[in-house]
Amino acid sequence: MRIRLIKYLSVAILAIPLAVNAQISVEEAIKITLAKNLQIKESQYKYALSEQDLYQAKSNLYPNLNIGVSDRVNQGLAFDQVAGQLVTGNKWTNSAGINISSEVTLFAGFQKINEIRANKIKLLGDASALERVKNDLILAVLTNYLEAITNQELTKASKQQVALSEEQLRVETIQFELGTKTLSDIAQVRNQVATDKLNLYANINAYELSLLSLKQLMEMDAQQPLILIAPEIGDYQPEIGMTDIAAILVRARNFQPELKQAALNRDYAAQQIKIARGAAYPQLALQTSYGTNYSSIGVDPIQRTPSPFGDQLKNNKSFSAGLTLRIPIFNNNNVRIAVNKAKLNLQIAENSLNLAERNLNKTVNQALLDKKGAQDRFDAAKTAFETAKIAFEVLEQRYDIGVANAMERFTAQTQMNKAQFELIQLQYLVFFKDKIIDYYMGNPISFNK
After folding, report:
1. Which InterPro entries match (predicted)?
2. CB proximity list for 82: less than 8 A, separation 6 or greater
3. Which in 199, 306, 402, 418 has the greatest CB count within 10 A?
């Protein structure tokens, strides 16, 4: 009951910060995900199973110990092995015995030692697999968090655009009533309001979907309110340049658990070859046993009188010990096939390691190229937004004095809105791509500059 109460209190304490304060940073989101995500728990269970496999492999070196107790009742013809005589007629007899036996393998082609080594490697591989799951979740949290932040900023910008369009519609309506604007002008402004609202609803939906994905990673209730703390990125400039690719690859190879896991899988496969070859060696085992027994028709060998129970247990004691040597001659090619399969599994593991190294190299290079491309696109989008904003402001002034028509104003505002949305997306994309490089290098994920 005390343990259960502690568990309940731990869960309640962990849930209090989110219940009281719905604001959460990316660091806190990662921390909660690593503590609660079910994928991590599944990997932890697999690691625990591997621990038991290693414990079993070590335990196989010890001798076994067994106790056997028997009690038999017989009627009619039978040979009583305890009394050493034939029982005839319609007679009931009873016999009982107890035996302690033990056996230990002295030599089996080093199979048991190699099994211990293989299970140690497997345990390390499962530890790397657990780290890989954690890393994948960290990347997923980072992706969904920044996606939600981006959609949140787009939603704010969309709301501002809707407010601007509605205010323009109000002004246009007044001017239409005064006769200075036409029905076509009103229709164009209403079209702009409807278009801005469609963008707003699309951004709201995208924000809610990305927030839902983030909550699922954190194993949170979908209905629980959550406010994300946006990074203050401003004119964020990445510090890592393209010339650092060699250093980044070195650090990525040392950090990324995918490579560690693939290398350990290769070592595990190599150990399996030794285990398979061990079956071709002779096996030597030592057996010992000690026991005694009793028979209801047992007699004293000298006096030929019925022997008491205690005397029989004392006089019938026996001890035995022996060695068993098993030399394999022909086993239907089982050993040869097992060795060949183990060699093939080693080749598969080596190929998987090469693929993991190639994929990591490709991924890191792609991440660097994506970061540079995002930075270039952001610089271009920044210029495009500034020019579109100036163009809209000039055209709006011309529209107010009647030089430009509503269609021209609508087109200029649409282009400005599009440029602003793209600027927001690329601003966070540059920040995100730089954090991806941090992830591959093993740096802690943080939004602090």
Report:
1. OMP_efflux (IPR003423), TolC-like (IPR051906)
2. 95, 97, 293, 294, 295, 298, 312, 316
3. 199
